[in-house]
């Protein structure tokens, strides 16, 4: 894991920073380490501390502009926890609710995780046309979710459980 996740003082995920930047924030008492790498250490002239994986800012930072999550196939699979929106089994594909052939777009609200079988069965039809029911409605991830979605699988796996439960 190269980057360190930065939480606001309110524990809300804010951004990621480089490992070096994270260490500087901790050494300047601007942040505290919430979770450290079990093995990796940061060593310098006056420093020898475990590499921080998650830090939390000591002071609350007001964020005026919340970034919207850019749509991605991987993001849809993570948002839906790799569960098919039609049958609940493991999903490996992304289905367009309104098919692209009918003008459906690559958006959070028009895409769901789907198993290959259901995706194939639905083909270029809407759920109504295919006689299929969505088990849940697609939704746009919150900015905090977006931050988690932007992390790699390996990084998500390394997060503390209380933080990762919404991301994986
Ligand atoms: Zn399915």
UniProtKB/TrEMBL annotation:
Gene3D superfamilies: 1.10.30.50. Keywords: Endonuclease, Hydrolase, Nuclease. This is HNH endonuclease. CDD domains: HNHc. The keyword Hydrolase applies. PANTHER family: OS07G0170200 PROTEIN, SLL1193 PROTEIN. Residues 71-120 form the HNH nuclease domain. InterPro entries: HNH, HNH_nuc, NA-targeting_endonuclease. Coiled coil: none annotated. One of its GO terms (molecular function) is endonuclease activity.
